[in-house]
Design brief:
CATH architecture: Alpha-Beta Barrel
Structural class: alpha/beta
Mean pLDDT: 92
CATH class: Alpha Beta
Low-confidence stretches: 26-30
Number of domains: 1
Radius of gyration: 18 Å
Helix content: 40-55%
Shape: globular
Number of strands: 10
CATH superfamily: Metal-dependent hydrolases
Strand order of the largest sheet: 1-2-3-4-7-8-9-10
Number of helices: 13
Distance between the termini: 22 Å
Largest sheet: 8 strands, parallel
Strand content: 5-15%
CATH topology: TIM Barrel
Length: 313
């Protein structure tokens, strides 16, 4: 077996309180009922993964109406992931969850997560309650994350407007990639990406449908006036190339051939979407995308180390 060297930035554990809460949402397919830390480590070893960055997707539907309970859940998930990292030194990093419907609670959790748990960043969904990233709802949280120069790992979810539209097709098949693109557009055209330049965003699934729609973004900016121009002072492509993206569910020529025409490969990170896709399968897919060995080395590890230097310790 080759030595572990890859860094997986898109890796989901399943704390007991998370699994039980998420299971109440009928539009989410749990798929991780038999998850365990040992299965996580076995999959990482099989796929030559040295470190996995832990994160939990969380749609608005799984948060309780009681803010106290929502804050308790976020704290429980973050402490669970942090214990995994402490119990297995060097094998895990943490992107903390925030009860983002509750801005005050989110600010408190940011303080605890960075100050006490020493997390590597936070997780935000592409939208929460049909408020996409870049909406004014997030402003106090973004201001604090910008002050910290934080990493914001994003994960898609079907918005309330578009959940369960096709009875035979799970939301993840179409809506997840589409919602990633909505969030990117909102960040760019609202001016939030320029307003919070110290936040380092990671988008899942190679940016969703963004590479295919990039020319439409460029055209929309070209023909815009006033604030719309000011919100993207350097243009669309330079802004897109300040974001990072992962390979989860996109490690195939259909996605990568388009992606690398829009975004520099220095911005592409290895991500698997475990437990749904393994590191071994993701690596095999990337090897069929025509990348040079040096490019693969950056995707597997080098680009993530540049973003998170502590991982090279």
């Amino acid at each position: 077996m080759p030595p572990a060297f890859r860094i997986d930035v898109h890796h989901h554990p399943s704390p007991p309180s998370y699994a039980s809460t998420r299971g109440q949402d009928k539009n989410w397919k749990p798929g991780d009922d038999d998850w365990s830390v040992q299965k996580t480590l076995d999959s990482m070893n099989e796929g030559s993964v040295a470190t996995s960055m832990l994160s939990l997707p969380h749609a608005a539907q799984i948060w309780p109406g009681d803010r106290t309970e929502a804050r308790r859940l976020a704290r429980d998930w973050n402490e669970f992931m942090s214990r995994m990292a402490q119990d297995h030194p060097g094998r895990f990093g943490v992107f903390a969850s925030l009860p983002i419907l509750d801005i005050e609670g989110s600010l408190l959790e940011i303080e605890h997560a960075f100050g006490v748990l020493k997390v590597d960043g936070v997780t935000l969904m592409t939208n929460i309650g049909d408020r996409w990233l870049g909406d004014v709802h997030y402003a106090p949280v973004f201001e604090e994350l910008n002050r910290r120069g934080a990493i914001v790992y994003t994960h898609p979810v079907a918005p309330d407007c578009c959940r369960g539209l096709l009875a035979q097709t799970h939301d993840s098949v179409i809506e997840y990639a589409t919602d990633t693109t909505r969030a990117i557009a909102q960040l760019l055209f609202s001016g939030s990406a320029a307003r919070y330049p110290k936040i380092r965003f990671i988008f899942s699934h190679a940016g969703g449908t963004m590479p295919f729609l990039a020319q439409r973004f460029i055209n929309a900016h070209r023909f815009s006036k006033g604030d719309a121009q000011a919100n993207l002072p350097d243009g669309v492509l330079p802004a897109l190339n300040r974001f990072y993206y992962d390979t989860a569910q996109a490690a195939h020529p259909y996605a990568m051939s388009s992606f690398k025409q829009v975004v520099q490969l220095s911005q592409l990170l290895f991500g698997t979407d475990f437990p749904y896709v393994s590191a071994a399968l993701t690596a095999k897919g990337l090897q069929g995308c025509g990348f040079a060995e040096q490019e693969l080395a950056g995707i597997y590890r080098g680009n993530a180390v540049r973003l998170l230097p502590r991982l090279d310790a």
